[in-house]
Write a structure and sequence with these properties.
heterodimer, A: mainly alpha, 2 strands, 78% helix, globular, B: mainly alpha, Helix Hairpins, 3 helices, elongated
């Protein structure tokens, strides 16, 4: 049992080490990477099924009892996140076989993506604030290298901004940890939840909460801290962008959700109202930014930001139903987004460009590609019966129940704009004829098609399997909102 | 002692942010390094400063003496320093690479990826 919680961190780390040992043999590295990602997938699903079956599980590392040692905890939300991370990693690893190319593969591409996912899974499973910081840094350092890999001018420029802003976020996060330890005398999350509940200096706690909000907000690309994202995400290889878009900002959102459901719930009138306002502004700036873009991946980068807004909205409302909506939304957005970004890579490979103006004619040339675009694109825009519709429906319903009518209007308007620019992409990339001066330059290999189509089918799967999946999200939300089960699982008899 | 350190930390933050807001890449690195130091000192102070009472458990006792220094923040700071060191080394290489590619130290000249 305890092994199961450690596996999502150990497997990608071990895969990375094995791949490093085979530095010169790229084909062997490829094999190891795919096998490692598949093993992670199996471990993640097993973990989710176990948690779903037996409730929250935790491991006290080296048998140091909580709150003194490092605790690994897996609740349903964490386990769902691990499964989503494993899914994206598997899809991107297979896709990379065709899209990344020898130049990057020879300088340690596969070890790096696996180390990054090890950090991400660690962040989803840790029950200790400082350990979360370490996992963040593991993730960041590997993402820095991935971002700069290839060394083009654009990439270096993007990477400088990305690295600077993320280091600032880490410094703020670290400062917040120091202050939190000074106030509470513990960094175990479950212990913090109990200690801070009896803390009379609420103003001090609120200030610390705000520091955490800024630190995580930069990583999650929340308004007004998102500028690094559209300046950097479109510069590296498509496979790298996809992995970043699917997972990195979501780690920030995950941390926000964990902190503002478990630890900082003493003054929700302040903290969660701030979250709500940020959510609305993030949604709107993201979608307006996307409408103005003329490059495929830059458009999708802005789109990430607007979706972060929806996730924050659910968190800000802090009701059982709104959190369930967030969990389902998270699954929807990671899967549909991965599908779309992988598709943007295929169109780039075929046309040699990703400027919307220079693309075209794909509807005539490849009906399959058109379907694979339409499913996730319409899903993200919120067209029934696709997953995005259910996700947005739930978020809007939760806002209505909480009588946050401004948010309802914002959420619906953002959906409308999303539909507008997705149709714009459709018109530019698929509907209009291929520009004569930009002919087809290459064919996309089967390993790029496979994961893309699979993620498209998965989008359909979560659309039609909404009933059982939403029930799962519901249970995950119940564990988030009723903190007692989490605290009991970690501290056990110490309570 | 805490007051002095608080002023030092404030000074480090101020200087770090000031350096970061200049346009030079070198000052950016220095600024980030100062921010990291400020955060590390903050954690150190967060554990309360105690002089002359090391948290050593005496022979036969089961807990360190009353009012002993808290060793945990020092462990945290050590971890943070190691991580910060690695990250700053990477940043230096990145900026060196940026300089050879762009032949400029001015951050305002690096705007081709912005929108």
């Amino acid at each position: 049992m305890s092994l199961l919680l450690v596996l999502p961190v150990i497997i990608p780390l071990f895969t990375a080490i094995l791949a490093l040992l085979c530095w010169r043999h790229i084909n062997v590295q490829r094999g190891i990477a795919v096998v490692g990602a598949s093993c992670l997938m199996v471990a993640a699903v097993t973990l989710l099924l176990t948690i779903s079956d037996r409730g929250i599980q935790c491991v006290q590392v080296s048998n140091w009892q909580a709150p003194f040692g490092i605790t690994l905890v897996a609740d349903l939300f964490g386990a769902v996140m691990v499964v989503l991370a494993a899914t994206s990693l598997l899809a991107v690893t297979v896709y990379s076989l065709g899209s990344v190319g020898r130049a990057l593969e020879a300088v340690g591409y596969y070890p790096l993506i696996h180390v990054m996912v090890a950090g991400i899974c660690g962040a989803f499973l840790t029950g200790d604030v400082f350990n979360l910081y370490v996992c963040f840094e593991v993730t960041l350092v590997s993402s820095f290298v991935l971002m700069a890999m290839g060394g083009e001018r654009q990439q270096i420029e993007g990477a400088i901004k990305y690295v600077t802003l993320n280091l600032m976020a880490s410094a703020i996060f670290l400062a917040a940890i120091g202050l939190l330890y000074g106030v509470a005398g513990t960094l175990n999350m479950a212990d913090l939840a109990t200690v801070l509940a009896n803390e009379p200096r609420q103003t001090l706690v609120n200030s610390i909460a705000m520091l955490f909000m800024v630190g995580f907000g930069i990583k999650a690309a929340v308004f007004p801290l998102f500028f690094w994202l559209p300046a950097s995400y479109h510069t590296p290889n498509v496979a790298i962008t996809t992995l970043f878009a699917a997972l990195l900002t979501k780690v920030g959102v995950y941390a926000l959700i964990r902190f503002f459901t478990l630890i900082f719930v003493g003054d929700t009138g302040l903290t969660h109202t701030v979250l709500l306002v940020l959510a609305g502004l993030t949604m709107i700036t993201g979608v307006l930014g996307a409408v103005a873009q003329t490059e495929f991946r830059r458009l999708l980068s802005f789109h990430i930001i607007s979706q972060i807004g929806y996730l924050l909205l659910g968190l800000g409302l802090l009701t059982h139903f709104s959190l369930a909506a967030v969990v389902y939304f998270m699954g929807h957005v990671i899967i549909a987004k991965t599908a779309l970004l992988l598709l943007s890579g295929v169109t780039q490979r075929i046309s040699g460009t990703s400027e919307l103006k220079e693309l075209g004619g794909f509807y005539k040339e490849s009906p399959l590609l058109s379907v694979v675009f339409l499913v996730p694109a319409l899903s993200l825009a919120g067209i029934p019966p696709l997953s995005g519709f259910w996700a947005k429906f739930a978020v809007v319903k939760a806002s209505l129940e909480a009588e946050q009518y401004v948010m309802v209007v914002a959420a619906l308007a953002v959906g409308l704009f999303t539909l507008y620019y997705m149709l714009n992409v459709w018109a530019e990339v698929f509907w209009k004829d291929r520009p004569v001066d930009h002919p087809v330059v290459a064919k996309a290999p089967l390993v790029m098609w496979g994961p893309m189509v699979a993620m498209g089918i998965l989008t359909l799967g979560i659309s039609f399997g909404v009933d059982p999946l939403f029930q799962l999200a519901n249970r995950a939300a119940f564990q988030l909102i009723d903190r007692q089960e989490y605290i009991r699982a970690v501290l056990g008899g110490a309570l | 002692m805490e007051t002095i350190l608080a002023i030092v930390i404030g000074g480090l933050y101020g200087t770090g942010l000031y350096l970061m807001m200049r346009r030079s890449m070198v000052k950016l690195v220095l600024g980030l390094a100062l921010l990291a130091h400020a955060a590390n000192l903050l954690i150190f102070v967060g554990g309360r400063l105690v002089r002359g009472v090391p948290p050593l458990v005496a022979n036969g006792a089961i807990a360190p003496p009353d009012g002993s220094a808290d060793p945990l923040p020092q462990a945290l700071v050590l971890t943070a320093i190691v991580i910060g060191f690695g990250v700053q080394a990477f940043l230096l290489v990145l900026l060196k690479r940026g300089y050879t590619l762009m032949r400029t130290d001015d951050l305002d000249d690096m705007r081709t990826t912005e929108t």
